[in-house]
Write a structure and sequence with these properties.
The complex is a heterotetramer. By secondary structure, chain B is an all-alpha fold. Helices cover 71% and strands 0% of the residues of chain B. Chain C is 35% helix and 18% strand. In chain C, the strands form five sheets. Chain C has a five-stranded parallel sheet with strand order 7-3-2-11-19, with helices on one face. In chain C, strands 20-18-12-21-22 form a five-stranded mixed sheet. The chains are: A alpha+beta, B mainly alpha, C alpha/beta, D mainly alpha. Chains A and B meet through helix 5, helix 9 and helix 10 of A and helix 1, helix 2 and helix 4 of B. The complex binds flavin-adenine dinucleotide, protoporphyrin IX containing FE, iron/sulfur cluster, FE3-S4 cluster (F3S) and FE2/S2 (inorganic) cluster (FES). Protoporphyrin IX containing FE sits between chains B (29-30, 33-34, 36-37, 40, 83-84, 87-88, 90-91) and D (11, 14, 17-18, 21, 62, 65-66, 69-70, 72-73).
Amino acid sequence: MAQVSSTSNEQSSTAKSITLKISRYNPEHDESSQFMEFNVKYEKWTTVLEAILDVKKHFDHSVAVRYSCRQATCGSCGMIINGKPRLACFTKISELDSDVVTVEPMNNFPVIRDLAVKFEKLFDSHQKIKPYLIRDDTELVSDEKEFLQTPEEVEQYIQFANCIKCGLCNSACPTMATDSSFVGPQALAQAYRYVADSRDKGKDSRLKIIDDSHGIWRCHFAGSCSQVCPKGVDPAMGIQLLRGYMLGFRS
Amino acid sequence: MPQDEHKEGIGGMMNPTRYGIERVAYLLMRLSGLGLLAYFVAHIYETSNILRGQVGWNEFLELTQTTEGHLFLAIVIAMCVFHTVNGIRVMLGHGGVGVGKPARPDYPYDPASQNYRHKIGIYSSIVLAAVAAMYGLAVMFGE
Amino acid sequence: MVDSIEFDLIICGSGLAGLRAAIAAAKKGPHLKIGVVSKVQVMRSHSVSAEGGTAAVLFEDEGDTIESHIYDTVKGSDFLADQDVAERMCVEMPQEIHQLDHWGMPWSRRPDGRIDQRNFGGYSFPRATYASDKVGFFEMQTLYDTCQKFENIEYLNEWFVTSIIHDGKRFMGVTAIELGSGTFYTIKGKALIIATGGAGRLYSFSTYALSSTPDGLDMGLRAGMALKDMEFVQFHPTGILPSGILITEGARGEGGYLLNNKGERFMKTYAAGKMELAPRDIVSRSIMTEIEEGRGFKHETGVDCMKLDLRHLGDEKIKEKLGGIREISIKFSGQDPAKDLLDIRPVCHYMMGGLHTDIDGATEIQGVWAAGEAACNSVHGSNRLGANSTSECIVWGKITGELAIDYIQNNTFTNPWPHHLVASEEKRIYDGIFRGNGDVNPYEIRQQLTDTMNDKAYVYKNETDLIEGLKTIRDLKKQTWKHVDDKAKEYNTNFANVMELDSMFRVAEIVLLGAINRKESRGAHSRTDYPKRDDVNFLHHTLAYYDPNEPIMKTHPVTITRYQPVERKY
Amino acid sequence: MRESTIMKIHYGTALAAVALVAVHILMRLTQNFAESLEYESVLANYKFIPYAIMLELILILLAVHGFNGLRVILIELKQGRIYEKAVSYGCLAAMIGLIAYGSRTIIMTNMGLV
Ligand SMILES: Cc1cc2nc3c(=O)[nH]c(=O)nc-3n(C[C@H](O)[C@H](O)[C@H](O)COP(=O)(O)OP(=O)(O)OC[C@H]3O[C@@H](n4cnc5c(N)ncnc54)[C@H](O)[C@@H]3O)c2cc1C
Ligand code: HEM
Ligand code: SF4
Ligand code: F3S
Ligand code: FES
C-alpha cells in the first residue's frame, strides 16, 4: 500500500522564492566575511533553518550551521536574521516579509565558521552563578519525599526556567556589545531563577558572585534581551528583581 | 592574535533603531549623562570666574549670553530634565519597581518588563525635556 | 601521532541518560576524571524535546502500586519485555523523581505542594509525572545544572565519536573528531557508557531532533556488540503536519479527542476501554486503518491525516498544561489548539531496540555500558509506554554510572594501547569517507533512504514492502555517496553528516532484516501478512551482529518472571 | 570597594542631587533670568552661608555621580586589568580635582576674598 512519506520537502504550486544571503567566514582561512546568495523556494511554513539546510543539501555542502531539535527547544540555532538575533528554526520566512533574507552569525560570540559561534563564555558565566539548588539536603537519602512547593511558588521562577541557553539575549544586549567581561543577561536571569525558587537557600552566595564590576550592575535595563528572547524568559525582569534584593527594595 | 570576539562594538551599543523605545532611552541616558558631566565641569570653571571680580565675571558672562550660548543652555536643560526624570524611572526599574511580576509566559511572548508604565516614563521624560528646553528658550530669548 | 587525551570514565552522549550517569559517577568517584563527550553541545541533546511525562508510582496512598506499573509496562510491551528489568525500573523510579525534585526540577504541583501526575496511554493509574509539557527539557536543565556542581566532570562539546577501541575483550578508548577544529583524537579511558540515544532520523517523518542518527548503535555494532530488537520502531499517533513535531500524548492525557472525517471518536471501535489512551501502537494502527478505509483527511500538502481536538479543554487549561504544544502548533502549523483541530499523523518516535545489554546495562564488552534509548535492556519489549523512556534513561543512567565507577576502582589497567586499531579507524574515515570521491549527493541519498524507511516500514508492514525496501537500501548503499565536498577542517558538518549516513545504512538494514524475519505481529511490529502474535515461534528477542557482508541474525530468550503472556486487550 | 557600594552611592547621589538641583534651579527662577546672573546677586548668594553649603553639597554629589558614571561607561567600553585600574583612579582623581577646584571658588567667594 502506498503510504505517503516525507512532507516537509514537497513543494506545492504555492511555493514562492526569496534570496537567502548567508554570511560565510572561516577565521582560519579568510580575511573577512562575505555574503553568498542563494535562491530558495519556500512555503508559508518554511523556516529559515529549513532554507539554510536546503542550501546545504543542494547547493553548497560546506555551509557551517548549528542545529538540532528544529522545534525551538535546544537553543542551537541562534543567528542574526535580517539584522536581529533570532532562532532560525523559529523564524518563518513568510513572517519576515522580505524578498531578501540575510543570515549572519550572532554578535558578541566568537565565530567558529559561517553561522556557528563559540559558546564557551556563555557556558562559563552560567556555571559561575551556581545554577543549582543550594542547601544541605539536595542529595536524597533513601525514603525522602519531595520538598513541598505550591503552584504559586512554582510560578515565581518557572518563567526563568524556560531559558534554552540560545544566547540571543547576550547577542542583543548593548553592554555585551562592548564589554567582554559582563556576565550577561542569560546568566543573570538564571541567577534569579534559582534565587526565586522557594527550595533554594543560596541567595546570599549568588548575590555575592554577581556583585562584581562586570556583574549585575552593568545591566542598564535596556530591555533588548527580553525583546529578542524566543521563550518569553524576560531576563530584564529577572535582573531588575534580583537587583531589587541587592538594593534592599525586596527581601 | 587574540581571538576576535566578534563583538558588536560601540556602533551596536549605540544603534537605537532595532529594539524599540527602551533602547532609545538607554542611549539618551548615556549621552545626557556625559553631556551633563561636560557641562558640569564647564560650569564649575565658568563660575570660578567670579574670583576675577565683577569685570572678569561680566566678561565671561558675555561669552555665554549669545544665541549659541542660549541654545546650548536649552540643550543642557533638556538633558538635565531627561536625565533626571528618566533617571528616576531607571532607578525604580533597577529596584524592581514596575517591571512586572513573574508569571508563566504564553506564546506569543510579550515581556512584562517592557510594559506601558516604563514606556510612559520614557515618553514623558522626553516630552518634559522638550517642554523644559522650550520654556528655557522662551525665558532666555524673552528678555 | 594522533592527538590523545585521557579520562577515567568516558560518557558518550549527553542526553538524560548521559547526564544522569555523569552525576552518579561524579558523586561516587569524586577523584576520578569523567569526560562527557557529545556531538552536540551538552544540553542541546535530543532529550530536551521530550514533552509529556516521566512514569513513576508516587501515590501509593491513593491506590497506585509498583506492581501495577510493572504489569502495565509488561502488557504494553506485548509480553516481550524482560520482566525483571521492568521491575527494576518501576521500583527505582519513585526516588528518582524525588531526587530530581531535590536538584531543582520544576515539577508541576498540586495545590498542596505535592508533585502532580497526569494520565498517559496504557496505564491503569495517572502516573506520568510532568512539568507542563516540557518534561525532557526541564529534566535536562536540572541534570545539566546539577552537573555544574562537580569539578571532576569535563565536557567535550561537539566532539563526534567515531569508534570504540578495545583489545578484543576489554574497553580501552574511543576515537573522535573535535568538530570545532577538525582534529582527530583518541580519548583513552577505563570505562565507557554509551548514551547516544535513538536513531529516529532513519525515517524522514520523525519527531526526533535532526541529530538523532544511529552513530552510537553503529559504533557498538562495529566493535562487536549486538543490536537487539531493532525491528520494533514506535510510531507516535500524533505528529503534527507538516513538520512532524510531536504533539505529546499528554494532550490526550488531559482529555483530547481523536476525530475522523465523520466527526466520530473512532477509538471506540478499537479500544473502547481506554479510547484515546490506549498504547501508542494501537492508536497509530487505528489511525492508519481509518485513513485506509476512507475516513481520514487530506492535509494541504497532500498527505493523509487525522484530527486531534483539544478545543473543549479551553484556552486556559491548554496554556497551563500544554503551553509548549500550543506554541508549536500556532507557530509551525498556524493552528491554535483552543480554536482549531490539529492535523496529525503517526510519526516515527522511538526505537525499542538498541545495544544488547543485561539488566545492569552492561554490554558484551568488558568496561562498556549502555544506557537510555541507545541501549536495549528490554524494558520496553515490543512497544514502549509513553513516559517510560525518560524513566529508563534516568534509572539506567544512574545504575551504569555507579557500576562503571566500581569497575574502574576494582580493576587495574595495564594493557598495551592498540595503535593499529586507531590507525585503521583513521584510514576508514579519512581515506574511506573524507577523501572519498564520487558524484552522488549524499544528502539526496539520505533523503531517499529515509523516505524508503517511511514508505516500506511504517505502521503496517508486509513482506513485499520490506523486501523491496531492503533492496532499495542496498542499491542506494552501492552508489558513490562516500565523499565530502567541504574540504575545510573547521566545523565540517558535511563530514559529520556523511559519517552519519554511513551508520544509517548499516542500522537501517538491520531494522528491515529484523522486520522481515519476524513473521508475526507484536506490539509496534505489525505485519498485515501475519496479523497475529505468535508466542510459539517468536517469543524471543532478535540479535544482530556485524559482518562486512550481511548482518548475522540470532535470537535471545525473554525473561519471564511472574506474568505469563496473555492476549493484549484494552 | 564593592561594586554594590559604589552603585548605591551612585543612586544615592542622584537622588540627593534631584532635590538639591531642584532648589538650585528654583532659586534661580525666583529672580528674573538675566538679573539672577548679575554679579552682585551671584555674589550675594555665595555669601549666604546656607546657600553656599548647598552649592558645596551639589558640587560633591554631582562630581561623585558624574565621574562614577563616566567610569561605568569607560570600563564597559574596554576591558583589562591595567586599563580598568587606570579608569577607576583617573575618574577618582578627576572627581577630587573638580571638587577641590569648585570648592575653592565657593570658599573664597564666601569669605569675601574676591
Ligand atoms: C519528541 C519526543 C518526545 C518525547 N517525549 C517523551 C516523554 O514525554 N516521555 C518519555 O518518557 N519519553 C519521551 N521521549 C523519548 C525520550 O525523549 C528519549 O528516549 C530520550 O530522551 C533519549 O535520551 P538519551 O539520553 O538516551 O539520548 P539523547 O537525548 O537522544 O542523546 C543522545 C546523545 O548522544 C550524542 N551522540 C550521538 N551520536 C554521537 C556521536 N557519534 N558522538 C558523540 N556523541 C553522540 C548526542 O549528541 C546526544 O548528546 C520522547 C521522544 C521524542 C522524540
Ligand atoms: C539630578 C538628577 C540625576 C539623576 C536622578 C540621575 C540618575 C542617574 C542614574 C539612575 C544613572 C544610572 C543609569 C544606568 O545605570 O543606566 C545615572 C547615570 C549617569 N549620570 Fe546621572 N543623574 C542625575 C544627574 C546627573 C548629572 C547632573 C550628571 C552630570 C554631572 C550625571 C551624570 C551621569 C553619568 C555620566 C551617568 C552614566 C551614564 C550611564 O551609565 O548610562 N547625572 N544617572
Ligand atoms: S534568556 Fe531567552 S534569549 Fe537568553 S539564552 Fe535564555 S532563552 Fe535565549
Ligand atoms: S539587554 Fe542588557 S542592559 Fe540589561 S536589560 Fe538586558 S541585560
Ligand atoms: S534547532 Fe533547536 S532551537 Fe533551533
